[in-house]
Specification:
Double-stranded beta-helix; two-stranded antiparallel sheet; mainly alpha
C-alpha cells in the first residue's frame, strides 16, 4: 500500500497544481502516467474513487519488475528525466555518508495543463 509521505504542514506549504495524468515526452513521444505520492485526487471523480485509482496506479508502477534501485559508490552520477520517471529518495546513514545533490531544470515543459485562478485542495 502506498504511504502518505507528506505531513499536513508540508502539504500546507505546497501551492498545488493541476497536471494531466498521461503526458507525452516531447523528445521521445513516449507516454507515461503522471502520478505519485504528490497526487491528491482526480478532478471530476468522486474523491474516494480518484484516490483509490491513484493508489492503484502507484502500487502497480512500483512493483519490483518496474523498479531501479541504485547501489551508490563513490563518484556515481545518476540522471533521470522527471517527465517520465517516478523517483523517491531512500534513507541512508547520514553520519557515515555524505550526499551531494545538484538539480538542473530545463524550462519549457510545465505546466501540463491550464491552471485555475484558485486551487481547491481535496478535503482530508
Amino acid at each position: 500500500m502506498t504511504q502518505n509521505v507528506l505531513t499536513a504542514d508540508m502539504k500546507a506549504e505546497l501551492p498545488g497544481a493541476w497536471q494531466v495524468m498521461v503526458r507525452e515526452n516531447p523528445v521521445t513521444r513516449r507516454k507515461s502516467i503522471y502520478a505519485g505520492a504528490h497526487a491528491s485526487h482526480v478532478i471530476g471523480w468522486p474523491l474516494d474513487e480518484g484516490r483509490a485509482f491513484i493508489e492503484w496506479l502507484n502500487d502497480f508502477a512500483t512493483q519490483p519488475q518496474f523498479r531501479y534501485s541504485h547501489t551508490w559508490r563513490a563518484g556515481d552520477l545518476v540522471i533521470w528525466d522527471n517527465r517520465s520517471v517516478l523517483h523517491r529518495a531512500t534513507a541512508y546513514d547520514t553520519l557515515r555518508h555524505q550526499r551531494l545533490m545538484q538539480r538542473t531544470t530545463v524550462a519549457g515543459d510545465a505546466p501540463t495543463t491550464a491552471q485555475p485562478a484558485q486551487y481547491e485542495l481535496a478535503a482530508e
